[in-house]
Specification:
Number of strands: 12
Helix content: 25-40%
Strand order of the largest sheet: 2-1-3-4-5
Radius of gyration: 18 Å
Largest sheet: 5 strands, parallel
Distance between the termini: 38 Å
Oligomer: single chain
Shape: elongated
Number of helices: 8
Length: 233
C-alpha cells in the first residue's frame, strides 16, 4: 500500500514545519507550500491524498486554492482558520472543504483529523468492482463508482458529501443524529463542531435541487438530525 502524501500549505514557516514534523512522525509523506501558487503547482506535480490549507495566504488566498483544487479533483482538504473567521469556514465548507481546524490548534488534533479523512478511502478504491446501485424515487447512488444521478442527470458531489449521502441511504427513513453522522463519516475521533454536518447537508441538497422546506430526498428532524425521506424503488 502506497504511503499517503499530505500537502501542508501555510505562509507561517513555524506552523508549516511543526505540522509537517508531526505528520512525518506518523509515517506520512509531506510536501510543504508557503503560498497558493506553490500549493497548486505541488498538487499538480504529485499525487496528493490530503491538503492542510491555511485560508489566509498571500497572493492566491486559501479559498481560491480550494476552488481550483475542487475543479481538478476530490482530494481531501482540511482548512486552517483563525477563530474569528467563521464566515470563511462556512464558505470553505460550502465550496467542498472536508473539515476545518481553528488556530491556535493542537498538532495532535490536526494529525487525528488527517488520519480520519484518510481512513475513508479514495473514490473508486479497490478497482473495478461490480456496480452496486441504490435507487430511491428519482435518485440513484452507485456505491462502487461513487456516482449519483437525480432525475437521470449526474450530480457532482465531493467525496465527503457522497459518504454522507451514503450514510443516510444505508437506512432509509431512519433518523441519524449529527453525532452519529460525524462518527460514520468523519470518524470516531472527530473533534470539531457538529454544525459541519449541517453545512454539508445544505451542499447535498443544493446539488440535488432538494428544498429543506419541502424535501424529497433529505429531511430534517428538528432538534435531532436528518433522515433520507426518498422512498426505495
Amino acid at each position: 500500500m502506497q504511503t499517503p502524501r499530505i500537502l501542508v500549505v501555510d505562509d507561517e514557516r513555524q506552523i508549516r514545519e511543526l505540522v509537517a514534523r508531526y505528520l512525518r512522525a506518523e509515517g506520512l509523506k509531506v510536501s510543504e507550500a508557503a503560498d497558493g501558487e506553490q500549493a497548486l503547482e505541488l498538487a499538480a506535480q504529485h499525487s496528493v491524498d490530503c491538503v492542510v490549507l491555511d485560508i489566509a495566504l498571500p497572493g492566491i488566498d486559501g479559498l481560491e486554492v480550494l476552488r481550483e483544487l475542487r475543479r481538478r479533483s476530490d482530494v481531501y482538504v482540511i482548512m486552517l482558520t483563525a477563530r474569528a473567521e467563521e464566515v470563511d469556514r462556512v464558505v470553505g465548507l460550502s465550496m467542498g472543504a472536508d473539515d476545518y481546524v481553528s488556530k491556535p490548534f493542537s498538532p495532535r488534533e490536526l494529525v487525528a483529523r488527517v488520519k480520519a479523512v484518510l481512513r475513508r478511502g479514495r473514490p473508486n478504491a479497490g478497482g473495478a468492482a461490480a456496480p452496486d446501485i441504490l435507487e430511491f424515487d428519482s435518485l440513484a447512488i452507485d456505491r462502487s463508482r461513487h456516482q449519483v444521478t437525480s432525475h437521470g442527470r449526474p450530480v457532482e458531489l465531493t467525496a465527503l458529501e457522497f459518504e454522507l449521502l451514503m450514510a443516510l441511504a444505508s437506512a432509509p427513513g431512519r433518523v441519524f443524529t449529527r453525532q452519529q453522522l460525524l462518527e460514520r463519516v468523519w470518524g470516531y475521533d472527530f473533534f470539531g463542531d457538529e454544525r459541519v454536518v449541517d453545512v454539508h447537508v445544505r451542499n447535498i441538497r443544493r446539488a440535488l435541487g432538494d428544498l429543506a422546506e419541502s424535501p424529497s430526498v433529505i429531511g430534517t428532524v428538528r432538534g435531532v438530525g436528518y433522515r433520507l425521506v426518498a422512498e426505495p424503488r
